[in-house]
Amino acid sequence: MAKAAARPRYAPDLWDAFFACVAAATLWLAAGESAAPGGPVFALECVFVAGVAGGRAVGYVAKYMGWPLPPLLGMLAAGILLRNVP
What is the pTM of this model? Predict the structure, then answer.
């Protein structure tokens, strides 16, 4: 039997990015101008995406370094960063 080819490690992240773009486009089409860049729904979506990215980044660092850091710490850092950057 032939062994199946291993999937690259970055494949789930690419799928997540693709589906985030599809979700943003769908939200923009459904909500109209409020979901366009500069609107309140778009700002909420940016906060959500930054929080998820920060949580995953801390999760990857915690796994790589062996430190017991919760992903919520990355979400908190992303929120603080977005609040203080104009």
Answer: 0.71
